[in-house]
């Protein structure tokens, strides 16, 4: 993890296989995103480390360096807190992962060779905060992506914090501590089902009690982490694999029943029907240990 400071900015050295346009293409695919803003290839976002909230602007120099500028006097004084921000960004963009062997495999793979050419340098964009990842997984169940983003915005703007800068609000995802105090009636104005409200409050209560945490899950192997997540009410195989993939960074996470994955394979294979689970299992044999990246690139074909 190589980084240094120039004046008040942090500069992170990027891995060789990284292309900001490919990552920005993913990050700007939905105009209703409320957790960051991207203008002229510069991203503005609040990064929360414990109780400290820093409003940062992220820009890229020649795909070799990422520059973090602090806005609104929100730069942490202590170096360890700035290190935590660097760690967050590394996790967000999966910068510590060497993708060389993934690309070697994918270039020879009939399904992946086109996506990896088209989206070269794309990383599995993470959701480092466990509560946010679980909420997003629950919100997205059985609805289209655009509606899921609408629900997220309603949820964030009702219960989240924000930093105001230059007349704009930059939002912070609601804390599990706050949501744990609520009842489903408090979420009634948000157009999600009562069941989803119950699930999200239940997850918040598990985290507030300390029973559920990212740290605990990260200490487990894949199977144990999967079992722990599946025990949570409202968290099925799809949400579990989504969280294992995008928050806990298990590369073998594989949401095999995902509609986007199925439709992408159908499109790339020119099929007039959906592929079966057995067919997907067969196609995924070469992806061993890279299932999450294969899935992400196949999603990107459609979304």
Helical stretch tally: 14
Q: What does the overall shape look like?
A: globular
Biggest sheet overview: 6 strands, antiparallel
Share of helix, binned: 40-55%
Strand content: 15-25%
Radius of gyration: 19 Å
The average pLDDT is 95
The largest sheet has its strands arranged as 1-2-6-5-4-3
Tally of extended strands?
8
First and last CA, distance: 30 Å
Which class best fits the helix and strand makeup? alpha+beta
Strand/helix succession: EEHEEEEHHHHHEEHHHHHHHH
Low-confidence stretches: none
List the helices and strands and how they pair.
Blueprint: E1 3-6, E2 9-13, H1 20-27, E3 37-39, E4 42-49, E5 52-61, E6 65-71, H2 79-92, H3 100-107, H4 113-118, H5 130-139, H6 145-159, E7 161-165, E8 168-172, H7 176-179, H8 194-208, H9 214-218, H10 222-230, H11 237-246, H12 259-268, H13 277-283, H14 291-302
Describe it.
44% of the residues lie in helices and 16% in strands. The protein has helices at residues 20-27, 79-92, 100-107, 113-118, 130-139, 145-159, 176-179, 194-208, 214-218, 222-230, 237-246, 259-268, 277-283, 291-302, and strands at 3-6, 9-13, 37-39, 42-49, 52-61, 65-71, 161-165, 168-172. It has 14 helices and 8 strands. The protein has a 6-stranded antiparallel beta sheet. A two-stranded antiparallel ribbon has the order 7-8. The mean pLDDT is 95. The chain is α+β, with helices and mostly antiparallel strands. It is globular, with a radius of gyration of 19 Å.
């Amino acid at each position: 993890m190589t980084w240094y400071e120039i004046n008040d900015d942090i500069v992170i050295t990027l891995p060789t296989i990284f292309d900001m346009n490919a990552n920005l293409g993913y990050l700007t695919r939905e105009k209703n995103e409320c957790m960051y803003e991207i203008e002229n290839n510069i991203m503005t976002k609040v990064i929360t480390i414990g109780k400290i909230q820093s409003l940062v602007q992220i820009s890229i120099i020649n795909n070799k360096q990422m520059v973090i500028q602090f806005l609104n006097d929100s730069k942490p004084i202590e170096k360890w807190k700035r290190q935590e921000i660097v760690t967050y960004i590394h996790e967000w963009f999966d910068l510590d992962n060497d993708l060389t062997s993934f690309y070697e495999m994918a270039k020879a793979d009939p399904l992946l060779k086109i996506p990896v050419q088209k989206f070269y340098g794309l990383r599995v964009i993470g959701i480092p905060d466990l509560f946010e990842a679980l909420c997003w997984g629950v919100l997205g169940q059985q609805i289209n992506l655009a509606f899921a983003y609408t629900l997220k915005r309603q949820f964030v703007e009702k219960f989240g914090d924000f930093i105001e800068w230059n007349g704009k609000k930059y939002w912070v995802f609601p804390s599990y501590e706050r949501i744990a105090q609520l009842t489903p009636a408090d979420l009634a104005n948000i157009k999600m089902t009562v069941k989803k409200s119950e699930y999200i409050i239940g997850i918040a209560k598990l985290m507030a009690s300390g029973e559920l945490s990212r740290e605990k899950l990260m200490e487990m192997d894949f199977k144990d982490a999967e079992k722990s997540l599946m025990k949570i009410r409202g968290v099925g195989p799809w949400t579990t694999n989504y969280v294992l993939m995008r928050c806990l960074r298990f590369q073998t996470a594989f949401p095999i029943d995902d509609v986007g994955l199925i439709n992408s394979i159908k499109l790339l294979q020119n099929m007039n029907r959906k592929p079966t689970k057995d067919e997907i299992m067969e196609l995924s044999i070469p992806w061993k240990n890279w299932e999450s990246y294969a899935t992400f690139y196949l999603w990107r074909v459609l979304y």
